[in-house]
From TrEMBL:
PANTHER family: UPF0644 PROTEIN PB2B4.06. This is Thioesterase domain-containing protein. Residues 169-246 form the Thioesterase domain. It comes from the Eukaryota.
Length: 267
């Protein structure tokens, strides 16, 4: 019994030493891991990001509110201070903000002119497009670029909110009226008597035309089919980025049974 105890004691002492060594080592590792886990980490402040987001969404909200207000507000009456101010802004945009205008002006084959140059101010009031449809709410601006070599015209037209048939969308009849005049303007330049009437007009609407924007109305004579009393003209409408919105073709004739007043080329 005592012999076996003497044999076990050295083993127990060695085991105790090993346990003590392990106990010293394990807490140290635990303390180190806990220290690393609990050490505070520096994070960037979220306030600058929040301020940026607040500014962005506030700006978007303000811009959206202004846009909605402009869409639902009643169009300005022609001749009022509000109408004059809007017209001035539209003319500034035409002069400075439209790349196609700069492009056409730099091309010597195109000649720029106003519409209705053959009419007096009194006559203009009695016409649909220059009378009831005048002002920033209607056909606020119309300019024509004529190419004599190719017998075609490109008209720059601003379509106001008073021409809408559905909110923000220009009425198809209003668009057809401008197309009729745009094609007829080219036809009359072809007809020797400088006058004529619309015999047929066909329009294919391809995409919505939204109010409050400039659109280009293209028109060209079909010389192979046209003669001294008939003019066949094709045309199209494109939005500010060049997307096709409408296509049109028309036949304009000089009546044989009665005399028409000469309209001229700038009508």
């Amino acid at each position: 019994m005592f012999g076996s105890r003497r044999v076990l004691q050295p083993r127990l002492r060695n085991l105790a030493i090993e346990v003590q060594q392990l106990s010293r080592f394990r807490p140290r590792r635990a303390r180190q891991s806990s220290t690393v886990a609990n050490a505070p980490t520096s994070q960037p402040s979220k306030w600058p990001r929040r301020l940026i987001y607040t500014g962005i969404f506030s700006g978007l909200g303000f811009a959206t509110g202004r846009w909605v207000d402009g869409q639902i507000s009643e169009p300005a009456e022609p001749g009022t201070d509000e109408d004059i101010a809007r017209l001035e802004g539209i003319y500034r945009e035409y002069e400075n903000g439209l790349p196609i205008v700069r492009q056409l002006r730099s091309d010597p084959d195109y000649v720029e002119s106003d519409v209705y140059g053959n009419y007096s101010e009194e006559d203009k009031i009695g016409r649909l497009t220059s009378g009831p449809l005048r002002g920033s709410r209607g056909l606020a601006l119309q300019k024509v670029f004529w190419n004599e070599k190719e017998k075609k015209a490109i008209s720059m037209v601003f379509l106001g909110s008073g021409l809408e048939g559905w909110p923000t969308v220009v009425h198809g009849g209003a668009l057809g009226t401008v197309l009729d005049e745009s094609l007829g303007r080219v036809a009359i330049r072809h007809l020797p008597e400088r006058t004529g009437v619309t015999a047929n007009l066909e329009i294919k609407y391809r995409a919505p035309v939204y109010s409050g924007n400039f659109y280009t109305f293209h028109a060209a004579i079909d010389e192979e089919r046209s003669n001294g009393r008939k003019a066949y003209v094709t045309g199209e409408v494109r939005d500010p980025v060049g997307r096709l919105c409408a296509q049109a073709s028309g036949l304009f004739v000089v009546p044989r049974k009665y005399k028409l007043r000469e309209v001229g080329t700038e009508y």
